[in-house]
Amino acid sequence: MMGLVMGAVALSAQAADKVELEGAKVGIWTMDFDAAVKLAGEKNLPLMLNFTGSDWCGWCKLMDKNVFAEEEWKDYAKDNVLLVTLDFPNDKSIVPEKYVKRNEKLREQFGVGGYPSYVVLDNDGETKLGQLGAGRDKTPASFIDEFKGVVRMSVGAIEAYVKANPGKADGYKAAIEEFQTAKKSLMDWLKTEPKRTEENTKKFEGFNKRIGEAETALKAFH
């Protein structure tokens, strides 16, 4: 029995990397949101906020083990993303007191309702590019693909594409603007809380069609 317990402890230790409490480095998990935002601005890189319950959330632990502990993810992250852990553990000693209220504020700000939630921000630390979740079959490769899909419209990604493809710059920027406008139009309409009618159903389908066409046009540049 003792061997099984020790084995479980060892597995847990392998499943999650140490989270830094102060400062920030590209690709290294930290609780220091402010330092990560500062570095993201300097490096022109996106951030990913990991809203987690590190000592009780089974899906969080599964993602730590299957994705974030793997070298494929670490190799990608070290050049491409600032990683911030926003922890809501049962053991309150895990999170420094100075971060507790701030974590709550960020959870409310980005509308996080469950764990884990991976909120992806642009390099300003405010603009939400998208949100990813957990999955039993997710791998480093599949999660990296999801992440790339979200950050393709970040400031850094747009600048990199334009620099590498100057002849396509105007068309690419126009495609991005149309995609963003299409999504915003739908969101603004949904905020009016439209009633479920045949006419509104057609409008909803129209919004989604426009978004789909804009997304297809955008993908053609990659």
Task: Write a concise keyword list for the protein shown above.
single chain; 222 residues; alpha/beta; Glutaredoxin; 2 domains; five-stranded mixed sheet; 9 helices; 5 strands; 57% helix; disordered N terminus
Blueprint of the fold:
Layout: H1 2-15, E1 29-30, H2 33-43, E2 47-52, H3 58-68, H4 71-80, E3 82-87, H5 97-109, E4 117-121, E5 128-132, H6 140-151, H7 155-164, H8 169-191, H9 198-219
Parallel strand pairs: 1-3, 2-3
Antiparallel strand pairs: 2-4, 4-5
Helix pairs in contact: 4-6, 8-9
Write up this protein:
- This protein has 222 residues and is α/β, with parallel strands linked by helices.
- The protein has a five-stranded mixed β-sheet with strand order 1-3-2-4-5, sandwiched between helices.
- It folds into two domains: 2-151, Glutaredoxin, CATH 3.40.30.10; 165-219, no CATH class.
- It contains nine helices and five strands, in the order αβαβααβαββαααα.
- The protein is globular and about 55 Å long.
- The protein has helices spanning 2-15, 33-43, 58-68, 71-80, 97-109, 140-151, 155-164, 169-191, 198-219, and strands at 29-30, 47-52, 82-87, 117-121, 128-132.
- β4 and β5 form a beta hairpin.
